[in-house]
Amino acid sequence: MTDKATYDYEFLRTSFPVPSVLHIELNRAPLNAFHEPFWRELGACVDKASTDPDVRAIVLSSVQRIFTAGLDIKAATEILSPSSSDPAARALHLRTHILDFQHAISSLSRTPKPIIAALHSTTIGLGIDIASACDIRLCSSDFSGCVKEVDIGLAADIGSLQRLPYIVGSDSWVREICFTARPFGAEEALQQGFVSRVFLGKEECVRAAIELATKVGEKSPVAVQGTKHLLNWGRGKTVEEGLEYTAVWNAGMLQSGDIGRAVKATLMKNKAIFPKLETRKGPRGGQIVRYEGYHGKSGSITPTCPRIRHSYRVATPINSLQSNDTTDAYITSFFGLNDSTVSLCASLQFTLKQQNRVRYLTTTPSSLSPLSIVTLHSDHSQIRSTIEDAYNGSR
């Protein structure tokens, strides 16, 4: 079980109301106005939960009397103060700050763990960015939301403009609330699809969010996290692209032992119990790490990386590989892939298979598991550079 001390933050209150659910409460008095240390803590907390096998779902709510007043204007003014007389230098400074800010809030969408937002009372500006990045939104009857940014002279830049059109069914409504910064209440939020349920008060809303998260946590983590990944990946894609990618994804995920557990429990009329899903955390902040080696006739892989002191075994021996012109093959494994490189890997697999150049694929590419490709020795460097260039270019 996770040590609760590992989730100790200055501006967040964290708890485990049930063993599989992490409850994060915004807690910067009096109004949860976000300055840089606050939003960095939120991003760090969610990123930590992303690789914690004890966490299967997350609930986000507020300790204070409102959900959030949005951005701390005073702190933001200090960031906007000129740090250089050179306009280009100032622009680069601001761009870096905005990208860091976006990355922290996007942790809510990026994490494979489903996040349920329990919104209450005033939820302004950044609060809508945060809620939009969550998977499920519930609210209390006193909820009042507002995309406030135009009132302070800027376009919303932390996610509302990108995510709201996918969340609600009316592009016209999104533009109306974003152009005018007019508030909208719980009934309107429910009508437009911004929230899925409304509750009488904050306590009831938070309780319902925890109950929902508990139900999610009882399901197969392979299935739940895969479902979130596929839903997120499919945004902006055609149905055909989504189906093709899902086929590649499930070619690996259908081999999960959770399917057998679920079927057995159903036949026995019992409740299925699913084990924790151990995930690899990309070292050095998610950077790709390569494990490379030659695949010999015995079926073992002798790593060429000096840090790897043992051999790996794979399911397919060398004499079963689709190769008539080589006695060994080359393996490259990538850990810490992000969404962009996962998509590239799926496409790369298909292309190489069509060209009969892939000799063995150990796993379906995903951000949760390594991609390993065994190829002819002459192909490995090109594959490695293609994936790494795409990864570095998407960061």
List its traits.
395 residues; alpha/beta; 2-enoyl-CoA Hydratase, Chain A, domain 1; 3 domains; six-stranded mixed beta sheet; six-stranded antiparallel beta sheet; 15 helices; 15 strands; 17% strand; globular
SSE blueprint:
Layout: E1 12-18, E2 21-26, H1 36-50, E3 57-62, H2 73-80, H3 87-105, H4 107-110, E4 115-119, E5 122-124, H5 126-133, E6 136-140, E7 144-146, H6 160-167, H7 171-180, E8 184-185, H8 186-192, E9 197-199, H9 202-217, H10 221-233, H11 239-253, H12 257-267, H13 283-286, E10 289-295, E11 300-303, E12 312-313, E13 329-335, H14 339-354, E14 358-361, E15 371-375, H15 380-394
Parallel strand pairs: 2-3, 3-4, 4-6, 5-7, 6-9
Antiparallel strand pairs: 1-2, 7-8, 10-11, 10-13, 11-12, 13-15, 14-15
- Strands across the major sheet, in which order? 1-2-3-4-6-9
Structural class: alpha/beta
What's the helix count?
15
What percent of the residues sit in helical stretches (DSSP H or I)? 40-55%
The CATH superfamily of the largest domain turns out to be 2-enoyl-CoA Hydratase, Chain A, domain 1
Order of helices and strands: EEHEHHHEEHEEHHEHEHHHHHEEEEHEEH
The portion of residues forming beta strands comes to: 15-25%
Number of strands: 15
Shape, principal axes of CA atoms? globular
Gyration radius, in Å? 23 Å
